[in-house]
Write a structure and sequence with these properties.
Blueprint (H helix, E strand, L loop, with lengths): L17 E2 L5 E2 L16 E3 L2 E8 L2 E7 L2 E4 L4 E5 L11 E2 L4 E7 L5 E6 L2 E2 L2 E2 L3 E4 L17 E7 L2 E6 L3 E2 L2 E2 L3 E5 L16 E6 L5 E6 L3 E2 L2 E2 L3 E5 L18 E7 L2 E6 L3 E2 L2 E2 L3 E5 L26 E6 L5 E6 L3 E2 L2 E2 L3 E5 L16 E6 L5 E6 L3 E2 L8 E2 L3 E5 L16 E6 L3 E6 L7 E2 L3 E5 L21 E8 L2 E7 L2 E2 L2 E2 L3 E5 L16 E7 L2 E6 L3 E2 L2 E2 L3 E5 L16 E7 L2 E6 L3 E2 L2 E2 L3 E5 L17 E8 L2 E7 L2 E2 L2 E2 L3 E5 L16 E7 L2 E6 L3 E2 L2 E2 L3 E4 L19 E6 L5 E5 L12 E4 L13
Antiparallel strand pairs: 1-2, 3-6, 4-5, 5-42, 6-41, 7-40, 8-11, 9-10, 10-13, 11-12, 14-15, 15-18, 16-17, 19-20, 20-23, 21-22, 24-25, 25-28, 26-27, 29-30, 30-33, 31-32, 34-35, 35-38, 36-37, 39-40, 43-44, 44-47, 45-46, 48-49, 49-52, 50-51, 53-54, 54-57, 55-56, 58-59, 59-62, 60-61, 63-64, 64-67, ...
Amino acid sequence: MIMTLKSLSRVLGALLLCATASGAWAAMPASGPLAYSAPDRTFVTNGLVQAVVRSGDTIYIGGLFDRVGPRTGPGLEFALDGSQNPGLPEVSGGDGTLQAVASDGAGGWYIGGFFTHVGGVARKNIAHIRADHSVDPAFDPNANDGIHALAVSGSTVYAGGLFTSIGGQPRNYIAALNAANGTATAFNPNADAPVEALAISDSGSIIYAGGYFSNIGGQPRAAIAALNAADGSATTTFNPSPNNRLVLALAISGSTLYVGGYFTAIGGQPRNNMAALTLGGPLDGTATSFDPNATTDGCNACGGVSAIAVSSSGSTVYAGGLFDTIGGQNRRYCAALNAADGTATAFNPNPNSNILGLAVSVDGLTVYAAGGFNSIDGLPSIGGQARNYLAALNAADGTATTFNPNPNNAASAIGVSASAVYVAGSFTSIGGVVRHSIAALNAADGTATSFDPNASFGAGSSATVYALAVSGSTVYAGGYFHSIGGQPRNYIAALNAADGTATSWNPGAGSIVETLTVSGSIIYAGGDFTSIGGQPRNQIAALSLTDGSPTAFNPNANSTVQAIAVSGPLVYVGGFFTSIGGQTRNKIAALNAADGSATSWNPDATAAANVLALAVSASTIYAGGDFVTIGGQARMNIAALNASDGMATGFDPQASDGVYALALSGSTVYAAGFFSTIGGQTRNLVAELNPTDGTATSFDPGADPGFGAFALTVAPDGTLYVGGSFRTFELASQQGFASFFGDRIFADGFEGP
């Protein structure tokens, strides 16, 4: 699929460092466990990184993000005062998210989600972190898909989610695991669809499950069931049958089961999205008089409840979800309800977005809330407390406490013990600093500098920085913005490297600038514009670094230019065009630097293709993009072309999907994009390739599949930097930006002695 913005471009490939406890970087020996593919510990972003460049001791990054901060992974433990408990093993791999957590009752935690490693130890989607913060070496159920719910009863851990195999046995969506070794017990309800919520009776003999299923425990059961703990068979009496078959939250208090989800009837009564069900006896599974009636915008079926917690006294039920009315009162996303009748109490935190997880402290004085909000505690007219995705609330009235870890993305589940809180979600960092779409990091330790240009497009739109280039003490930025560095600047700007303020250089492009390359006293700009520097220039221009005025170079491309590489008197360009420099050229061309006229060099990537990345090495031009033929040969998304005649060489990695970034370091070619195989090997998003034939080396950082890598550069010392939409690598939850130490990397990807 052709993409007109450089929301596709570069990535990386090499390695070998790990962080010391102090945060400084220290090289590990080649024999060190798992060191080879682990990214360095640098600050991460909370969004896309689409441009990376290093100058001296500073790394500049651009993209679509609003915060950079220290890497943590998606699970963190906090003391009750909100301070982070250090030393917790980092969760990584998979898609790098956690969706469930349960206390083990001894100071440790069971965690579930989508991951492949915990603290560098292979653990697939479920793990046990012991009280001393070590990964339990015996507990390894190895779920083949995501875990969405966990509950613990004595020596048994119950799990629900998307899996069909766990604990060494086939188990569809729900299982019971031996807490000692993670093996599956005889409990086997065999649900026909995912299980999203679990609760355990006080006696431990009945397991309540909620989700999307219609059959479980050998019986037809719509979205909720009571299962015998011994074998997983459904009890004969409990059958509330919610009408929309979607239960997302369960909580037990005494003989009552509180249920949240999306439904308008359950337990034989009309109930909108939340209900209380009687447990046991002749009324087993019938709805009580508790009727909060959760709705949004007057829609009965729309005010879903996704989180429930009950006070230790059992007198108050806390609910979170997408409602705006509940318990007879206006309550946005979060409320406390009287257990007797479901009416709302004075508790009114008023978050500005959804709640995904709730937990009550052991002493009952604090309610922990997780979700997608960035403000809580206060009416819209007076504003609330800034709390990003996680807050601790006074149980009496919902006001926010001082607890403020400030994660960089949504939190979804919370576990509470007597001394700690474990928070799980899709975040990858806490704390950090605000940086809108452009930032600078110290190359020495990966932390943010004071450089803060604050790119902006205007109210209601987010700015994106697609391209960066550095010349001397000036950083050039191109992208989708109308102001940057404290000044109005349309799509292109020059910034002081020291503080990020805009210089007087102001070519003012007519539309998006997607690529920048500096050569001597000229900067080449490509993108979607038709004017720049006060002159008509279609998609590509050469600008003076002195005043921003265009030179005589005017290739007049008929569509977007995405990549530019300069070699002596020639400018190589790639993009979506079919005409450039006065000639028919399909997606790739060589132009005379003097006037922009096309040379006879014509690899012809065909009109249906595109070229998104270029790199030059002596007599070879490397090209990446979305194409199937180029240089007169079948080449899948990546090729090497002779500079003399444009014909393809024997380099043929055959990437399975688009290649959007290329970089060269010595005799090594690095490629990045959306591929999952390249060079004859499984490689997600980034690979190191042999320049002769394109075979992949053993370097394999293991980026999360389904995402993309958009920026790639190699520093003079051999360090490789990567930017993209990825959330994690196999061995580190490094979101958006990653660094791989490479000054001693050999062709096989291993560090020299």
